[in-house]
Amino acid sequence: MASLKTVLYLGVWLSAWIITTADENFVPKAENVRWVSLDFKTILVWTTNASDYKYTVSYHSEDPEWSQNPDCIRMSHSECDLTDHLRPLDRTYTVQIKTEPATVDYDDDLEDFPHSACPPFNPYRETNISAVNFTVEVVDESRVIVNITDPLSGIHELGKQLSLRDVFKKDLKYKISYYMSGSTGKRDIISNSSTAEVSKLNAGQSYCFMVAAFIPSRPKSSQQGAWSIQWCTLGDGNVLQGLSLAAWVGAVFILLTVLVIIVTVIVLCCKCCRQKNTSQSSAPV
């Protein structure tokens, strides 16, 4: 009987030891690994459920050797800025994230720790492009000039922050979409430069314009950047700078609100006056 108890205790102890050892040896992988890239500012981000682990990011392209960002070796946070490391830009890069315990026995094979991967990424062909700024200059009743400011990229070279024109060069074009107020039909033109003339406009009519960066050499899903705010011209040739449809709706709402308040005040005043006159006329003489 004593021998049976000893065997049972030994079995329970061994089971607890195995579970504890397994927990100690379990290293969670980085999850939801994804690229976040806007105007070539490119960051690799991921999520993790544990805080007592370190992460090392490695990447490579055509060179089979893995490279590392010195700032992304055994770090505790869950993002790595690779903006200055993915060069040349027009290459497809593969990354992996290795998870390690906070304290490591370097007698162990570090390659045994789990690695997380992410879909390949090409900055030149896949980075998102932000909305551009532009102005509209009225030339005459049928023509306007659209002046576009090339957005800045996240890339710096020799102390200079490069614009998207510096990076894309002749590949960068702009799509200009415009319509006549009161019309549902839109027209699009593609400009090869940052200045474009829009002609054949109806004299005396108001037109609204929007602009987006356009790179036809990229895959169709990433050819166009975000649309700008809307600029509208008045029929007499003036320009309402930056007044979008939402701004017009807001302005009309404010005017209507003020009008309702004025009418309400007038009605209440008239009602009070009538009540006062009624009470005076009904009072005994």
TrEMBL record:
Keywords: Blood coagulation, Disulfide bond, Glycoprotein, Hemostasis, Lipoprotein, Membrane, Palmitate, Signal, Transmembrane, Transmembrane helix. The chain crosses the membrane at residues 245-270. One of its GO terms (molecular function) is cytokine receptor activity. Residues 133-227 form the Interferon/interleukin receptor domain. Its main location: membrane. One of its GO terms (cellular component) is plasma membrane. InterPro entries: FN3_dom, FN3_sf, Ig-like_fold, Interferon/interleukin_rcp_dom, Tissue_factor, Type-II_Cytokine-TF_Rcpt. SUPFAM superfamilies: Fibronectin type III. Residues 1-22 form the signal peptide. GO terms for biological process: blood coagulation. It holds the Pfam family Tissue_fac. It is found in: Membrane. It is a single-pass type I membrane protein. Residues 12-102 form the Fibronectin type-III domain. Initiates blood coagulation by forming a complex with circulating factor VII or VIIa. The [TF:VIIa] complex activates factors IX or X by specific limited proteolysis. TF plays a role in normal hemostasis by initiating the cell-surface assembly and propagation of the coagulation protease cascade. Belongs to the tissue factor family. Interacts with HSPE; the interaction, inhibited by heparin, promotes the generation of activated factor X and activates coagulation in the presence of activated factor VII. This is Tissue factor. The lineage of its organism: Eukaryota, Metazoa, Chordata, Craniata, Vertebrata.
